[in-house]
Design brief:
The chain is an all-alpha fold. The protein has helices at residues 2-17, 20-26, 32-44, 47-63. Helix 1 (2-17) runs parallel beside helix 3 (32-44).
Length: 75
């Protein structure tokens, strides 16, 4: 009984963390474990995608420059 209650809490928390437009799509998963696996598959990507995203962020960071007296808020 407690295990089921915990699963419902976790599943609800995961669903509430999603944007509204995604909630209907993921509501079909009945357990928190199934839901988490689907979220990772949809938004996590595979290792190659993660590596590409990481490299893109590093490149963007390396190209970031502020001009002269420009503050961080003005960039």
């Amino acid at each position: 009984m407690q295990k089921r209650r915990n699963d419902v809490k976790v599943r609800t928390t995961l669903l509430l963390a999603l944007f509204d437009e995604h909630q209907l799509r993921f509501n079909k998963y009945k357990t928190a474990q199934e839901l988490w696996a689907a979220i990772l598959k949809t938004f996590g990507g595979n290792e190659a995608i993660k590596k590409t995203k990481k490299n893109q962020l590093k490149q963007q960071y390396g190209n970031f420059k502020a001009e002269g007296s420009e503050t961080l808020e003005q960039t």
